[in-house]
Amino acid sequence: KKVDEVKSQLQASIKTLETQCESGINASDLNPLIQAIATAEKMAELSGDFPELHDAQDMLEVFRKHATAKADLEKAYAARDRVQLRAAMDVAQDLEMQLDVLVRAQELLKEMDATQGKMVGVPAGPSLQNAGQPYDAAEEARQMRQEIAKQARFDVKNYPNLRTADDFARGAVLNKTKIKENFLTFQPMVIPKSITDLNRENNKLALQIHKDLLGYMGDKQLPFPAMLAQDILRKGFEHKPIRDEIYMLIIKQLSNNPRPESVAKGWQVMCMCVGTFPPSPEFENFLLHYIIEKRDRGRGAVIDYARYCLRTLEAILNSGDGTGFVPSVEEILAYKERPPILATIYLVDGNVITENLPLTPDLNVAKVLEMCSGWLDLKDSRINTLGMFVYDLGEQEDPKAGADPYAKAAYADLKRTPRPLRNEDYMGDTIVQKARQRRKFKFVLKRKLFLPKYNYRGEDPFFERMTYLQAEDEAIIQGNLELPSPEEAQQLAAISMAVAFGEEMPDTMEAMVAANVDEFVPPNWRKTKSPEEWAQLILQFRDGLIFVDPDDLQDRFLQIVQKCPAYGSHWFYAHKMEPTSISGIPQNIRQLPTDLILAFNAEGMHIYTFSRKLLLSFPYSDICRWGGSSSQFSLIMADDQTSESYEFVLVTSQAADMAAIILDHIRAIMAEQELEA
């Protein structure tokens, strides 16, 4: 009898909470069920287990989720935080909650989207970090949102505002069955009516948009395809009620599309749309579901397009309506030249400036440098000396790809050094090139030009920090700067350790060795002493450094390395190609070994052996012309003794990089000479 009473208490508590769920429950509402379960657990210990207890325990967890979801929703609504609001709404909808606060939250979100200011000319941000939340919290919210959107109930065919296939085909006389079958799949003819349920005026817009889409994708021959894409974007930007229709039409044309070139252009329109206007709050998860599905299960370039779309869509959903902009025809035409990309940009020390930044095809390196300078809040007048570099990270590990097609090239054994991009280059071209070469890489922001007059301490601490990190990388990590004396090597190592450790710098030989003291010593001196010997030498500097301001320490370091003749150089490995005829070629060129390193800096071109022994130097005035191919670099050099010229040919995969850095230095030198004049 007592067991029956406990069962009745459990069932009554559950029924009460089920009724309260319709209007929303609080944590305190769970107390009767919690008490009933506690009583039932004691009864189960005496009389044995019973299924009603397990059912009640399961229901308690469900009710707890409801209570937590309601509390989070009310908190987000009160805070008017867009990211929290979206995350809380997603959880509430996932639990199929029907609450007044959920309706109010949806209305608030629409209001916030409508009043959000427009940032003209700035692409969607790379992450949710700009929302005012800590990065980890924003990233967690983003991942939660994706997990919810992945659910099967958000497949686009389940979108409530879709017409039925019968409604879509209603009025057709011929091929009615085929029209119904192709309701949500590719068709080369203009649709008879909109995919979503629209009024008469917007239905007309939908038919024109579909016609524009067919024209841009090449499925219907129409003039000026870029203007057709712009018309789609402008209509979506200006008419909110048809935005979901536009996204559905793109999805329709991408589904079962037999033409790869049409699919590529369809994804291009999708990339443009997600940067121009967001879908409605009701359609968000359906669009996210489709894009995530293609990211995870697509093939080839579709995966890259989907990754770009996902990041850009998340950014515009976070920023709100009005933060996108309609691209110009010229910007749309850039999609023919290269794809949109997601770029992660690093500093020299490996810290990330921006992760998965969506870059439209029209944004060249100069514009990206401007954006990075803004994010880093750089104020130094020398920011025009910054450049974007491509670091080669080796061959991609893809067992399906087969043998490396470049493994037998004449330059295959040469080390690939960081490639400086020109300001007019496009990072999307680099990604395409590296994909074809099957090479891993990363983008790094650092200084590209080091004219002697720029070697001074500025007022911008972060710019000075960047300059120091680059000098430390060159002198201590890469070993590109040869220090003439062990005393200078000791000073650099001590300063580098003091900057890294501060007052926590090791104070005993044993602690120094444990901290890998030898890794702070420039490579050309590192093996001349044991770690213990280096520790003893560097300890002598410790007390005089650990309390010095880090900015002053960095400046001391720079003053030492700036004395090196090779400071600020760009290094390239090459093989000398033997000429077919030695006639007219100076003896000093003929006597060069096969394996060479070419260094370019403000003073000109310098030729080294692989062991970093300087052999020859030439000012830029001695270089008459230059050019190359994918495997060779040719320099037409002036011979001062004969007043004639000769050709110096090298085997290298970095001909374009050397050509670009020569031109950058000559332009910079000439610009400075004009200013001085």
Automatic annotation (TrEMBL):
Annotated MyTH4 domain residues: 186-336
Show where the FERM domain sits. 341-673
The record's listing under Pfam families reads: FERM_M, IRS, MyTH4
In its UniProt entry, the species of origin is given as Spumella elongata
| Keyword field | Actin-binding, ATP-binding, Cytoplasm, Motor protein, Nucleotide-binding, Repeat
Is ATP-binding there in the keyword field? yes
Q: Which GO terms describe its cellular component?
A: cytoplasm; cytoskeleton
The UniProt entry, under InterPro entries, shows: Band_41_domain, FERM/acyl-CoA-bd_prot_sf, FERM_2, FERM_central, FERM_domain, IRS_PTB, MyTH4_dom, MyTH4_dom_sf
Kindly give the PANTHER family that the UniProt entry links to this protein. MYOSIN VII, XV
Q: Does the keyword Hydrolase apply?
A: no
What family classification does the UniProt entry report for this protein? Answer: Belongs to the TRAFAC class myosin-kinesin ATPase superfamily. Myosin family.
Look up the domain of life of the source. Eukaryota
The record's subcellular locations are: Cytoplasm
Quote the CDD domains the UniProt record gives: FERM_B-lobe
From the UniProt record, which GO molecular function terms apply?
A: actin binding; ATP binding
* Name of the protein in question: Uncharacterized protein
